Amino acid sequence: MAAVEARGGGWGERETGGMEMRAVVLDGPGAAEEMRVRRVPVPEPGVGWVRIKVEAFGLNRSEYHLRAGLATNARFPVIPGIEAAGTVDLAPGGEFAPGQQVVAMMGGTGREFDGGYAEYTVVPVTSVIPVETTLDWATLGALPEMLQTAHGSLHTGLGIQPGQTILVRGGTSSVGVAAAVLAKDFGLTVLSTTRSPARVQLLRKLGVDHPLVDDGNVAAKVREIYPDGVNAALELVGTNVLPDTLKATAVHGTVCFTGMLSDSWTIPNFYPIGYLPNGVRLTAYGGESSDLPAEAFQRYVELVERGRLPLRIDRVFALDEIAEAHRVMEDGRAVGKLVVRIDR
């Protein structure tokens, strides 16, 4: 039986003695209901790549964009999934030992080559982070991309400092929850938004200092609390609300555009002087796994173990429930992370 050989591009063929695995394969864009689990060949890694036995993976908005045909760097057919958690099955270059706990993310995973929606995945060595933890697989599977995006947005995109104020726009998304928790742990005062009044108390339980109901006019609510505006703002909703987020930010403050939960990510006829308030900086973050050092990831994992980072998992699905998981993600019904646990 031929198997997939990961070489950073399309599927190659190599004999592997008939080994097969379960995976979700997208032949092209489609509805959530069209997602099905298939049996496909187990992928073979070349030197510089690592085969991971996947135990769990988190769902990410970018995977919805892929399925919906909104991704610009995708090739089909492809196994989606930009992250995974599990153990090393094979590392031909010897970079990792068999059985070693690892997570993997980004670097083209799930778009340019097959990703984590499978029992095994092959990824570049540069996308793999070793970890030692007693966390259950579902919890560990929720962390990689969520923490990488939150960490990178806060420290690379915003350059946060203890004592500052920060607004998280899109606060009940998985990255929004993580960003609020990490910012609070770093010594910031956190304002965070939700469109649902029913979720305000949940944000308070996560440690948010000022939960705000997003009615489209968040800037006015922010300036009722901080008349001069916040020092930093993390935009996770999209360009449709970005002008309002900019207005909530103080002179010499910074807004980092990271997410687009509204699927709105471009600014037509952008005129900087007319768009940007005086003295407010606009930056963006869309980094890679290398932006989250292994030691930082290990520290965050240990904080989760000790209950000091109360990151929220909304629901854990089985692989066969992938269509329902995508429906929940697409509809915005989750508060926190959606995770798939590989059931064998």
TrEMBL record:
The keyword Oxidoreductase applies. InterPro entries: ADH-like_N, ER, GroES-like_sf, NAD(P)-bd_dom_sf. CDD domains: quinone_oxidoreductase_like_1 (cd08243). Keywords: NADP, Oxidoreductase. Residues 30-340 form the Enoyl reductase (ER) domain. The keyword Oxidoreductase applies. It holds the Pfam family ADH_zinc_N_2. This is Zinc-binding alcohol dehydrogenase family protein. The lineage of its organism: Bacteria, Bacillati, Actinomycetota, Actinomycetes, Propionibacteriales.
